[in-house]
Amino acid sequence: MFVTEAYAQAPGAGGGASFIIQLAPFLLIFVIMYFLIIRPQRQRMKSHQAMIAALKRNDTIVTAGGMIGKITKVVDDAEVEVKFGENQPVRIVRSTISEVRAKPEPAAND
């Protein structure tokens, strides 16, 4: 006949090694994801927290909404008072600050 009988094979003696080989792609994906996604995000968070902690009066900042202002008063650990233009100062949460701009140096008289 053309059909042969199929027999079940007994598991091999090296079952532990094949399990590690099956897990290797998942471990490799996790390691790549750690170095490409998780680690850089942690570094950005640390640098942002250091920038927020170093805020002081007269720093020019950019908020997350894109507004540029100057810090007039540091209220507490969570809030600062910012002046946008010539208007009344506004209290904002420190975590909404996305960038601290360097103070411009005065031009030299020639």
From TrEMBL:
A GO BP annotation: protein transport
One GO CC annotation: plasma membrane
SMART domains, sorted: YajC
Subcellular location(s) per record: Cell membrane
Protein transport recorded as keyword: yes
Domain of life of the organism encoding this protein: Bacteria
Transmembrane domains' residue ranges: 19-38
Annotated keywords: Cell membrane, Membrane, Protein transport, Translocation, Transmembrane, Transmembrane helix, Transport
Role summary: The SecYEG-SecDF-YajC-YidC holo-translocon (HTL) protein secretase/insertase is a supercomplex required for protein secretion, insertion of proteins into membranes, and assembly of membrane protein complexes. While the SecYEG complex is essential for assembly of a number of proteins and complexes, the SecDF-YajC-YidC subcomplex facilitates these functions.
Listed PANTHER family: SEC TRANSLOCON ACCESSORY COMPLEX SUBUNIT YAJC
Protein name listed in UniProt: Sec translocon accessory complex subunit YajC
